[in-house]
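> call design_seq(struct)
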């Protein structure tokens, strides 16, 4: 684990694997989550064949917190990626973006295409309104299962409204919190995704959460995250792979339809999986992603046991 000064700010960076191996940058979701979970489940797998670089984004978790007065916005997260690449002496690298990290990965690839070899979008969002409506529909189902019909109806009404991305996002955050411990039911199919958080004390995790809240609030205030970037997909010049769980509520059907129009895009749907394939089905996830990254272009690879489904051109067993 290391701290790098990236454009004047301390950024938490973890590097695994030999530096002679192909480099891969992991971008976590949120906004305001952490690379902790991905590293926990995938670092040992990736380090055999890749140089994995995972970061807590600017102002998040173990990275230096944001002050109330310093300039900060979405573009800072893009520029941090490029600055770090140069500091590490990496010519080009692949990027894996999970959830909001997929949004960020698409932005990064559109601004700095020559820095990137290929992109893996893991359960991404490219449009916060689409995602918020899908999450609200899933939340409605969870509320209904709990017998809270009024909240279920509220979610469904919001999901069919023409409210702004920001309003829908904020409404989902509020209603999701009202689910308490059942909020995870929205995202996960496989409950056995245990993770050891004992590397830090409860007090440290509370401090990390406070930084996350500030990070998210600053991005909300700027408002750029509420702009759809679906229109950037056709301009993506490098090979890409969309990996989603069949029960993922974040990458809704509209996202998939938009992605399917890409000439250089490939898709894998993992069965019996929710929003975190890297944690819910870690072995199969790694086999799929590593096969794509190492070959540079997608070819069908038999992974066994029927734990996934391919949707790709010219695929045959």
């Amino acid at each position: 684990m290391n701290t790098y000064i990236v454009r004047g700010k301390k950024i938490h960076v973890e590097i695994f694997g030999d530096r002679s191996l192909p480099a891969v940058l992991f971008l976590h979701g949120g906004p305001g989550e952490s690379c902790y979970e991905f590293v926990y489940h995938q670092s040992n797998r990736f380090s055999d064949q890749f140089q994995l670089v995972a970061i807590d984004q600017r102002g998040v978790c173990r990275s230096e917190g944001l002050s109330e007065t310093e300039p900060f916005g979405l573009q800072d997260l893009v520029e941090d990626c490029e600055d770090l690449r140069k500091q590490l002496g990496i010519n080009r690298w692949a990027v894996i973006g999970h959830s909001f990290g997929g949004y960020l990965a698409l932005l990064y690839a559109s601004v700095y295409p020559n820095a990137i070899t290929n992109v893996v979008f893991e359960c991404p969002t490219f449009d916060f309104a689409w995602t918020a409506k899908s999450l609200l529909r899933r939340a409605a189902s969870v509320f209904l299962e709990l017998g809270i019909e009024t909240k279920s109806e509220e979610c469904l009404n919001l999901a069919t409204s023409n409210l702004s991305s920001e309003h829908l996002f904020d409404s989902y955050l509020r209603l999701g919190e009202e689910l308490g411990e059942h909020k995870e039911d929205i995202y996960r199919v496989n409950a056995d995704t245990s993770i050891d958080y004992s590397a830090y004390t409860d007090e440290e995790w509370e401090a990390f959460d406070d930084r996350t809240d500030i990070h998210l609030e600053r991005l909300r205030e700027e408002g750029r995250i509420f702009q759809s970037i679906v229109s950037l997909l056709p301009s993506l010049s490098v090979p890409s792979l969309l990996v989603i769980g069949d029960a993922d509520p974040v990458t809704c059907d509209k996202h998939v339809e938009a992605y399917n129009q890409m000439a250089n895009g490939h898709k894998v749907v993992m069965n019996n999986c929710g929003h975190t394939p890297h944690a819910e089905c870690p072995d199969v996830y790694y086999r799929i992603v590593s096969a794509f990254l190492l070959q540079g272009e997608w070819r069908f690879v038999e992974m066994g046991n029927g734990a996934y489904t391919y949707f790709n051109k010219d695929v045959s067993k």
